[in-house]
Amino acid sequence: MTSDLNPLTIPMLIALTAAGYALATSGVTPQSAALVALGLLAAVTAEILLLRNSDLSVIYLAIIALETLIVLALAAWLGEAITPQRIAGAGLVLSGMALVAH
After folding, report:
1. How far is Cα 62 from Cα 45, in angstroms, rounded to an integer?
2. What pTM was estimated for this model as a whole?
């Protein structure tokens, strides 16, 4: 499928999708329903635009990779311990996606 989107728009939409999903999953408490809704709305809107205009396999892998990195960075920013197990887990997710992509 050929893309109708500007080549510069695609990375921005991937980042918005990944950030939206990360925001939605980081705000899962009863007090933050609006944060979850906002994150999901941004993610779903950007993802629909991407998937209508781009290759599903490439776009989805990019979204998951970026979301993994955002969640790891958010955990570090919030003061969570970045243990070797967490780094290894993120590395396995990213390595697995690299294998699937090739």
Report:
1. 16
2. 0.72
Q: Are 74 and 26 in contact (CB under 8 A)?
A: yes
Least Cα distance to 40 among 29, 26, 53 occurs for 26
For 67, counting Cβ atoms within 10 Å of its Cβ (0-12 exposed, 13-18 middle, 19+ buried), the class is buried
Buried b (16+ CB within 10 A) or exposed e, 87-96: eeebeebeee
CB 48 within 8 A of CB 100: no
Contact assessment for residue 35 and residue 24, using Cβ atoms and an 8 Å cutoff: yes
Per-residue DSSP letters for 6-59?
Answer: -TTHHHHHHHHHHHHHHHHHHT-SGGGHHHHHHHHHHHHHHHHHHHHHS-HHHH
The predicted-structure confidence for 67-87, as pLDDT tens digits, reads as follows: 888 888 888 888 888 889 988
Backbone angles phi, psi at 59, to 5 degrees: -65, -45
